[in-house]
Amino acid sequence: MAIRILALCGYSQNASIFAKQVRSALLGVGGSAAEFKANWSALPAKYQAFQIAGADGVSLDGKPIGSATNANGATGAEVVFVDPPVVLGESQLSPIQVKEVAAYAKGDAAPNVAVTRSWWTAPDRKTYQYFDNTVKYLHEYLVSNEPFDGVIGFSQGAAMAAALAALLEKPGLHPDFPANDKLKPLKFAIAVGGFKPRSEVPDFTNYFPLQTPVLHVVGKTDPVVSGKASKQLQDACPSSRVETHEGGHVTPGGEEWAGFLSEYINTVGKGGKAEDVAPLSTFGAARARL
């Protein structure tokens, strides 16, 4: 059975944008470029009830929540990208985020590509608004679509991935994520440009330390998530492995990363240890699974 990975996008993104963003990095997980195709489709009606307008005046009309699954054979991983349930308005985005979304949507006729979303909003940085709704949504999705071996998240999605790993690792941690025999702890989590959830409401104190193995992918020049914020998440995950890249707040790609991530996922996802995977620097054209 293929390794299955849940993919959680960053703030202002969506399932389709994240699929495009990580395509280069995940080429080694599932074969050739032709095999890695993520086709978005709307989720069943029961999931649409979780959609929330993140600000006054934001319309949900024509913006169904959906998912995209890469098409590959049983030899590689199946990566399932899910839309966050909170729909954002342009006033909640930075000028850079507006430009990024427009760039990803250019030439793509699918209307969902331009819909900006998030797992929560933080108007005062003390409260993660709509977090409980997101927890309910992910619980419903996982129960109906299990099993998943791992999770990968970018930025806010990486923080959500860490929280999700904790919810699966510690049944009963959140009242809206009840224990279920179908749900098992994840074998790994990959946090790209991630940070430790740090609101007062909800209180994440009991979510950490996290025992799930976590691979932290850190940009040396990240202008969004500081080195201090990244280190806080690393320190909260005793089974951490850290790999850096020369870029900023992005998901790195290319042959080196494709080879490394392929090896990492296929090792840890099958019960191996993160330390069994060779250093990133040893991967390249000769070792990438392309």
From TrEMBL:
<dbReference type="GO" id="GO:0005634">
    <property type="term" value="C:nucleus"/>
</dbReference>
<dbReference type="InterPro" id="IPR005645">
    <property type="entry name" value="FSH-like_dom"/>
</dbReference>
<dbReference type="InterPro" id="IPR029058">
    <property type="entry name" value="AB_hydrolase_fold"/>
</dbReference>
<protein>
    <submittedName>
        <fullName>Dihydrofolate reductase</fullName>
    </submittedName>
</protein>
<dbReference type="GO" id="GO:0005737">
    <property type="term" value="C:cytoplasm"/>
</dbReference>
<dbReference type="GO" id="GO:0016787">
    <property type="term" value="F:hydrolase activity"/>
</dbReference>
<feature type="domain" description="Serine hydrolase">
    <location>
        <begin position="3"/>
        <end position="257"/>
    </location>
</feature>
<dbReference type="InterPro" id="IPR050593">
    <property type="entry name" value="LovG"/>
</dbReference>
<keyword id="KW-0378">Hydrolase</keyword>
<dbReference type="Pfam" id="PF03959">
    <property type="entry name" value="FSH1"/>
</dbReference>
